[in-house]
Amino acid sequence: QQEKEDLQGKLKLREHLSQTAGKSEATPAPSKNIDSEMKQLQCKLKNSNNEITKQLTTIKSLKKQVQEKEERIQELQAKISRLERDLSMKRHLIEDLRSRLKANEENEKASSVSLESLERKVKALAEDCSNKKASIDSLKQRLNVATKEKSQYQQMYHKAKDELEKKDLKLTNLESKMIETECAMTELETTASQQLHGLAKQSGQALETVQNKLLLTNDKVEEFMTFVKALTRELQRSIQELRTKIKQAKKMGEVRACKRGLSQESVQLAASILNVSTTDLEEILEVEDDEETAKTKMEFEKDKEWLQYIQKLLEAQFPFASYLLDAILEKLNEKKKLVEEYSSLMKYTI
């Protein structure tokens, strides 16, 4: 750079001298030596410029290398400081670990004793675990059953939901129809109120006629009830008479059979032994036994129940005609059987 500056100074001086010489002399005669020097100097300048450019590039590259190395040094210094810190920390840690090792060695002795007790506990826990596993398996089975039931209930819920949606649609339709019907009802009420005023007068007269008819029908119903009650009582009375007649006929037959079996002398002998007359002896022979009395009581109770049943039918709501007919027909059939029995007994006695 200094050479370049010197050469540039020399060039400037020569240019200045040439200019001053040209001014002093009107027709200057440039010498060949100066031109050759000038060329040499220009060549030197070019060479020096090229060298300077090369050196500048090398300087730049060197500067970059220096900066990189400085950065690397800084990084290494930072690493060294970190490593030193780590080392100090590790030393502290090693000291802590040594102290802990001593404490652990002391604790190991105590833990060995506790380990034995823990092993015993582990065995007991293992047994508990096996029991719990069995209970867990049973619970899993229950869970599976519960999940199946849940799925079924979910299906039922979805079905119910679908049905509810359908019913909601129906409800909305019904509500709309209800509104329409309410409108129609209001219209009908207005027309009906007008018609009712007209009908009220007519209904008053019709009500009187209906009341009269009701009174007549009530009288007829009462007459019918009295007729049915009288009919049932008469039926029951006639049946009881038939039963007594049948009993009497049976007794007469039995007495006659006894008389036929016994001679007149034996009858008189029995009467003399008992110190009674022959007629009194016949009455003694005609006395009812216990079975006959029980039978008569049963028949009386049945008749009573039958009358109560007919009374209930008459007091019951409509329709009751078929039940009433069945009850009366039952008694009529009973009467018919009794009549046949009585007629057959009378034939044998005759």
UniProtKB/TrEMBL annotation:
GO terms for biological process: centriole-centriole cohesion. It comes from the Eukaryota. GO terms for cellular component: centriole; centrosome. Signal peptide: none annotated. InterPro entries: CNTLN. Gene3D superfamilies: 1.10.287.1490. Residues 1-36 are annotated as: Disordered. Residues 1-17 have a biased composition (Basic and acidic residues). This is CNTLN protein.
